[in-house]
Write a structure and sequence with these properties.
The protein is mainly α. The protein is built from 10 helices and no strands.
């Protein structure tokens, strides 16, 4: 059972459906060379990553917190990062790890990807938590660039169960592809006319 996470609305029936059609998702998956083997490897990755979620978030938040232009998106009117905002986003970010690995890429998953996108873009930034940030959005360029640290920092966590190098690589490749598809989906909220 999932503990209550403020602002986490994955299964909320009121969540707006994604404007991304199933065939568009299929095209994205084809573009990243997604396969049934990747789906299976990502599920296995989830089993290893789930128990390490807080440690993974410590690494990611350490990076974001030490990078001024990234942590600025969490700053309040005083220009300082808002700890309450960071904490609420952290809980949802942790749940995203599990959802990415364990959920089917179906209409419900697409709808939540659209919601995540909306929360990063000017349309919805700061609204979920009622935060008064000086940042009206997460710059799309930085969202895309974060694929790199979110991917390269995960390998050691994927190897925590002493899996073979081939198995760790399969998990790693599946993670990289899934993260890339997620960010591609999130980009739609910034320029739907070009999507």
């Amino acid at each position: 059972m999932t503990r209550s996470i403020p602002g986490y609305t994955y299964d909320d029936p009121a969540l707006a459906p994604s404007p991304v059609a199933p065939h568009q998702l299929d095209e994205l998956l084809a573009s990243v060379l997604w396969s049934d083997d990747d789906r299976a490897a990502l599920r296995r990755a989830g089993a290893v990553l789930g128990p390490q979620t807080e440690a993974i978030l410590d690494v990611w938040y350490g990076f974001v917190g030490s990078t001024p232009h990234l942590v600025a998106t969490f700053s309040g009117a005083d220009g300082q990062p808002d700890p309450a905002y960071l904490d609420s986003v952290r809980a949802r970010f942790g749940r995203w790890i599990t959802d990415l690995c364990e959920r089917d890429f179906d209409a419900t998953w697409l709808a939540y990807q659209h919601e995540i996108a909306r929360r990063h873009a000017p349309e919805g930034k700061n609204r979920t938590d009622g935060h008064d940030s000086t940042s009206s959005h997460v710059p799309l360029a930085h969202l895309i660039a974060l694929i790199v640290p979110i991917t390269i920092t995960i390998r050691d966590f994927l190897a925590a169960d002493d899996a073979s190098p081939a198995e760790v690589e399969a998990r790693y490749q599946a993670w990289f592809k899934a993260v890339t598809v997620s960010v591609a989906l999130w980009s739609r909220a910034y320029r739907p006319d070009l999507w």
